[in-house]
């Protein structure tokens, strides 16, 4: 009775695969025809994803095989499938106008469609082997898009760094698959998630968990494997939008999908939380110094992915999924409208208010935001002990609200501005906790339960995260350029250059993978 759910799910990546196939076969067709066909098929994929989602929410999850293809379609799968289909359709439609007249547009649409199709297959498959195949093909298809302009040396450096890091992640997933098979005797998700762990296999399970963590870290551009992400701006803007809004979330989806395995290896989650913490603080700090809108967005993505990985490390998997959705929608819009953002910023720019503000204003804004955060958590029945990830992100939200309220308390602002800012802050707090509770209840059977904060390590980690983000808040407030503290001015150049991680990586790539000398213009490079 529920086979139609499976067919609807399979039709989603199939339609995008056909779009790429048509682009590769009809080499003599008009480019406008190719882009129209790809746009229509991508919109049809959105409709199919909606049909599949409605079936899952009405009839429950589907975990079976269709035509020898194992599928695992639950609420987590269809939410991600809808997200990827929606963003993919927008990016494909945008690309039709963005690259109009470009000689390589047909080739671009081919690999763009296949990249989106690979991500779709990744989120609906029910077998770990197929998951790895889709994971690898997503990376290889993206590699072709990163080299869309092969005459640009910068594109080759970034693509090669991404290629090496991705292959390391692929190896980690293969080793994870071997370990999982040794533990469970199968690689079908339905069997793995419902099986009990033999005591003699606990060490092998822990090894599998660490391999999964390593694969996720590679995919999500975590520190220090992040340097390729800010440098892929040599590609067309639609690729940046798709990459930042969709593909980079694959690491988070891997962790959430395999949450039932990872919660049985707390040490792996602790490592994940540490890496996420370092990455979140690094990305947020470096973002403050960037002068390029796209580089600022790239480091923002690194910071956001770090925080998402931190949430996974704390066991707040539903919160991490909500973070993925919100970040994907925001970042897709930000990249696709980046040119307009620059124009608006130039037209509306005004020097910030940095006259000697009374410290009491900042304290008032901080405690008001703290009261809103604690009040919101209490209103929805949440606590730091039981839902550390949700409450931690709420505390980071408090930092943003503090900045909002502090700006509203500026000498030039009136009472109306202050009231308006307070109402906005209250609305944001209520909306945040309402969404978190909704996702927690929506996915309670699809993902593992959050782990309570019950150890010294957990408490210390949360304290470090809060202290780090509070320091970044203070830096943001005290960042008036020449008026900044001398220590900040001295550190500025180092932070701007990302502490030279990218420079070191570039030198290694140039040393062990010399740049190409001549290029062909059919999409490849020749030595």
Structural account:
By secondary structure, this protein is mainly alpha-helical. Helix content is 72%, strand content 3%. It has helices spanning 3-25, 31-59, 75-98, 105-124, 128-146, 153-184, 189-194, 202-219, 237-245, 250-257, 259-262, 266-287, 293-313, 317-336, 338-348, 359-379, 388-408, 415-442, 456-477, 486-496, 501-512; strands at residues 62-66, 69-73, 518-519, 525-526. Mean pLDDT is 83; it is low at 344-351 and 518-527.
As a percent range, the share of helical residues equals: over 70%
Strand content: under 5%
The N- to C-terminal Cα distance equals 56 Å
Number of DSSP strands? 4
Strand order of the largest sheet: 1-2
Write down the Rg. Answer: 23 Å
Per DSSP, the total helix count is: 21
Question: Main β-sheet: number of strands, strand sense, barrel status?
Answer: 2 strands, antiparallel
Contiguous low-pLDDT stretches (5 residues minimum) are: 344-351, 518-527
Mean pLDDT comes to 83
Shape: globular
Question: Secondary-structure element order, as H and E?
Answer: HHEEHHHHHHHHHHHHHHHHHHHEE
Write a brief caption for the model.
This protein has 527 residues and is mainly alpha-helical.
Layout of helices and strands, plus pairs?
Elements: H1 3-25, H2 31-59, E1 62-66, E2 69-73, H3 75-98, H4 105-124, H5 128-146, H6 153-184, H7 189-194, H8 202-219, H9 237-245, H10 250-257, H11 259-262, H12 266-287, H13 293-313, H14 317-336, H15 338-348, H16 359-379, H17 388-408, H18 415-442, H19 456-477, H20 486-496, H21 501-512, E3 518-519, E4 525-526
Antiparallel strand pairs: 1-2, 3-4
């Amino acid at each position: 009775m529920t086979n139609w759910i499976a067919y609807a799910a399979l039709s989603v990546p199939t339609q995008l695969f056909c779009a790429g196939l048509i682009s590769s076969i009809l080499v003599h067709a008009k480019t406008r025809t190719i882009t129209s066909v790809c746009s229509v098929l991508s919109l049809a994929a959105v409709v199919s994803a909606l049909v599949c989602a409605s079936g899952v929410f009405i009839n429950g999850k589907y975990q079976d095989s269709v035509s020898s293809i194992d599928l695992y379609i639950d609420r987590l799968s269809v939410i991600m499938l809808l997200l990827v289909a929606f963003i993919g359709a927008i990016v494909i439609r945008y690309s039709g106008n963005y690259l109009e007249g470009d000689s390589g547009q047909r080739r671009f649409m081919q690999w763009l469609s296949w990249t989106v199709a690979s991500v779709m297959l990744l989120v609906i498959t029910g077998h770990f082997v197929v998951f790895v195949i889709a994971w690898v093909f997503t990376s290889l298809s993206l590699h072709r898009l990163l080299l869309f302009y092969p005459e640009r040396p910068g594109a080759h450096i970034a693509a090669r760094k991404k290629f090496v890091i991705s292959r390391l992640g692929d190896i980690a997933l293969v080793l994870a698959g071997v370990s999982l098979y040794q533990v469970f005797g199968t690689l079908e998700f339905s069997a793995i998630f419902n099986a009990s762990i033999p005591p003699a296999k606990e060490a092998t399970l822990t090894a599998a968990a660490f391999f999964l963590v390593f694969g996720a870290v590679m995919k999500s551009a975590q520190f220090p494997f992040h340097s390729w992400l800010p440098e892929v701006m040599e590609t067309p803007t639609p690729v940046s939008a798709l990459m930042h809004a969709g593909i980079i979330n694959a690491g988070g989806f891997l962790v959430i999908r395999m949450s039932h395995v990872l919660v049985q290896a707390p040490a792996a989650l602790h490592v994940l939380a540490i890496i996420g913490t370092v990455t979140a603080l690094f990305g947020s700090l470096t973002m403050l110094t960037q002068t390029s809108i796209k580089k600022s967005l790239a480091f923002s993505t690194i910071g956001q992915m770090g925080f998402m990985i931190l949430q996974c490390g704390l066991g707040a998997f539903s919160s991490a999924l909500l973070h993925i959705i919100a970040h994907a929608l925001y970042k897709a819009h930000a990249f696709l409208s980046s040119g307009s953002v620059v124009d608006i910023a130039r037209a509306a720019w005004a020097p910030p208010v940095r006259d000697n503000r009374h410290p009491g204003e900042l304290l008032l804004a901080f405690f008001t935001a703290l009261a809103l955060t604690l009040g919101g958590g209490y209103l929805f029945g949440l606590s730091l002990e039981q839902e550390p990830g949700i409450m931690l992100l709420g505390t980071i939200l408090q930092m943003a609200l503090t900045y909002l309220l502090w700006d509203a308390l500026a000498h030039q602002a009136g009472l109306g501005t202050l009231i308006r800012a307070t109402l906005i802050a209250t609305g944001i707090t209520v909306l945040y906790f309402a969404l978190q509770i909704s996702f927690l209840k929506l996915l309670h059977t699809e993902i593992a339960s959050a782990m309570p904060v019950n150890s010294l390590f957990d408490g210390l980690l949360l304290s470090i995260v809060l202290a780090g983000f509070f320091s970044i808040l203070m830096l943001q407030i005290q960042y008036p350029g020449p008026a900044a503290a001398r220590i900040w001015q001295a550190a500025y150049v180092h932070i701007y250059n990302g502490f030279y991680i990218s420079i070191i990586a570039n030198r290694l790539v140039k040393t062990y993978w010399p740049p190409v000398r001549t290029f062909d213009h059919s999409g490849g490079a020749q030595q």
